[in-house]
Amino acid sequence: MNIVYATRAAIPYPSAASLNTVQMCQCLTQLGHEVTLAVGRKFWRRGTRHTDWSRFYGFAPAFKVRPYFELPRTSWWFDRQITTWAAQQNALLYARYPRILPAAQRDGLTVILELHQAINVAERQWLASALQTGHLHTVVTITQALRNHLLACPELTGYSDQFTVAPDAVDCSRFTSCCHAKRDPSRVAYFGGLFPGKGMEVIAQLARRMPHTRFDVYGGRAAELTKWRSACAALTNLHFHGYVKPADVPTHMTSHAIALLPNQPNVLLPNGDNIGRFTSPMKMFEYMAAGCAIVASDLPGLREVLRHDANCLLAGHDDLPGWQTAIERLQSNADLRQRLTQTAQREAIELYSYRRRFTQILSRLESHSAVPATCSLATVSLPARPHAIASAVNL
Fold first, then answer.
1. Is the domain of 182 the same as that of 98?
2. What is the pLDDT confidence band of residue 393, given thresholds at 50, 70 and 90?
C-alpha cells in the first residue's frame, strides 16, 4: 500500500511525538508498505538540525522523507502541498492532525486520522464533514476515554463505527538487545518531561521521604532542569540527567529495576493543552518492554493498560505514603518484581507492538469493505473515494 504519513511534529527533534512518528513509519515499512513521511522543516527549531538519524533515533529510516518548508501562520498552504502530492501518488493519507482534513477532502483522499488528545469545535466539524463524505475512513484514538469523549460530541455521535482504539505502542527489539542481567533495586528511574502534571512533584517528595533510595530522572528542557535542580539541591539522592536521545534510552532504562509513572489528572503541555484525561504515555510501554517494575498513578487512562499487582503496582496520584509503600515492596521482594516484569514484557510483545497495532488499524480497510479477511488490500474498492488505495500488499 502507498501511504503518506503527515505530521506536524518537528523531526528530528527531542520529543516523544518525534520518536513516535518515525517508529510508526518504520513499522509500516516493515509491514511491506511504501511509506513517505511528509514533514515540515521548522527552521526556527534548532533541534531539527540533527542530520544523522541513525545516531539520534537508533535506527536508519527505511521510509522516504518528503520535507516541506513550514512557516508560521501558513498552515493551510503547508497542508495543501501534502494532500496535492498524496493525491498525485494515489496514496492513503495517514494524518496526525485534523487541520489537514479539508484539504484532503478537496483532493479526494482516503484518510486515517490518529488523535492523541481532545480537539476543538472547528476540528470536530472538520471530522464530521470528512466522515459524512466518506473521505475519513477511520479515526484512531489512543485511549477508550478519548473515544468516548469524542463520540459524546453532537457532531460525531453517529459515527461510532468509524472510531477505533489503539493504545500507543513500543518497538520491543530496541530493548531486548540491551537488557541488564542484574539491576540494583535501590535505584529508581523516571523518564519523560518535567512540565506540570508529569509527576516531578511526587518524585521530589519521595526523594525526601526515602533518603536511601537513588532517584534518576531522565528528560526535561533546560529551563525545567534549572528550576528543579535548584529546588532539589539539598537532595543528594536525586539526580537529573537531562535529555537522553532515543538511541540511548534503552541502555539507561534497562539498567533500572524500578521505574515510575507519576502522572497527575491534569497534564499541561508547554503549549497549554491538557492531555491528562486521555494520555497513553509512550514511556509506559517502553518500561514494560525494558523489564522495569512499574509504579504508576491509579488513573483511568493508565488503567486501560496497567493492572495493579498484575503488570505493575498502582498508587493514588497524590498518595505519597502509597507510592513509598509500593516502591519499598518492589525493593524488598525480588519475586514480585520478576512476576510483574515478566507479565509486562509479555504483554508489550503480544499486545502493544507497533506491528500488531498497525495490523489492527489497517485491517479495518478490509473489514469495512465487505471482503474476506484473507483478501489482499489490492482488491479492495472503497466507494466514493476517488483517490482510494491502489497497489497494496497483504497484511
1. no
2. very low
